[in-house]
Structure prediction request, 361 residues.
Amino acid sequence: MRHTMRSSAKVFKLFIVVLTFCISESAMANETASDIKVPFGIRHYDIGAAQNFTLNDIDGEAFELNKSKGHWIFLHFWASWCGPCKEEMPMIQKLSDVMKDEKFQVVMINTAEDEDTIFEFLSAIDIKLNSLMDVDGLVTEAWKPRGLPTTFLINPEGEVKYQAIGGREWDKLLYTDFLKQLIHKAN
Amino acid sequence: MINFALILLASAQIVQPVAVKTAELEMKFMARTPDQMVSFYEARGFPKAMLDVLKQQCFITVGIQNNSDDKIWLDLSTWTFSSAGKPIKREHRDYWKKRWQEMNIPLSKQSTFRWTLIPETLDYLPGEHEGGNIVLPFTKEPISVTATFATGENKQGEKISITIDKLFCAENPQ
Prediction:
């Protein structure tokens, strides 16, 4: 009888442990990207599927957005004549360095400038990141950024989820933590 | 209720930025000389035909910062410009698009020009700062600008109206 009671107690304990584990796993799974606190300067921008484009970078390599699913994309529009773009760029470089082991990619699009201008600009401020060239400005027009600079965050399924308002201090914990949470939480 | 800020500027010629601050927003106006604008656009490879048109205009760079906790709505079509008692027509970005197309200006230069203009409409989020140029026909007379903004998520909040008198187009130094 005592043996039966001990066995029952053990089974009950095991049941509680398993139950606790299941509840905690379920809670994690239910903690979606929409539960993540959005830092100042970033807003939800749920406009659905990201508009595809294909552009060349300054090395002549073609990039097609739709072929880059499976990780978060930091899509950044900029121009060399835009003062805030120049201020923000080193922080984007640092962000890219910090996030290099994450499922995350910085994709920069220069608006309507030529290769020499882009190259000189990036070299002058010691930016290693490559940039796509929207030579005619048509991709930028289609994406309708609020102004320059503008950043969109696209989830691994290829949906636009967030928009950053103006230049942000991307290398600060406020933003890197936010981006890491996005990457590690269910969508 | 209209929150009305009337700014009367006594100076005869505005060469310094004109700043206006209310509880909800800040605005800054900076008139640019034709030489400044031509230098800027020339450095971006704008063709001479485009520069010849641009140097005849009156460029005013406007910066707007939303300092409120609510949305503030920019709609340039509600702004009024006048000089010497007569309205001044601000050309819409569509006008410029058409004009550049007629002149066969390369798309890249058309695009850059458009990005230097202030948006026609924009919902300024709390803390947001955006700006750009407004292009007016050149005049030596003082210009009066009344800028009106709707507020609130659905534009149902108090309207903000800011008037600036005696804003001047900047001229090249003699």
Q: What stands out?
A: The helical segments of chain A are 2-30, 83-98, 115-124, 138-143, 173-184. Residues 16 and 22 of chain A are 10 Å apart (CA to CA). Chain A touches chain B through 21 residues (CB under 8 Å).
